[in-house]
Amino acid sequence: MLVIFSSGMNSDHTIAGLELLRNLSGRKRAMVLLTQDAVLLALKSRSGASDAFGGVSEAYALADHLTKRGFGQDSLMEPFKVLSYDDAVDLIMADGISVAGSF
User: Fold this and answer.
1) Is pTM beyond 0.70 here?
2) CA distance readout (Å), 51 to 25, 68, 85
């Protein structure tokens, strides 16, 4: 199951998406894709970020969106990795992947 985030840190949408992840934790294989302002959620410097994404099996941030905000792979906490647009489309379209929501 893939959960996509695009909203900023304090958005009601982001809060709802993080709640969904907490509810999925341990029951399903959850993956996260961060886009737009949501890429800032994966920064090492953000307190509490590791708790929010601790139960995910795979986590990604779009490379171009991260770069436009002045950050790179070295700025991301574990388990986040950068992903190109093409790789993001491949992930979304992969067999067995269902998108749970976009927040």
Assistant:
1) yes
2) 12, 26, 27
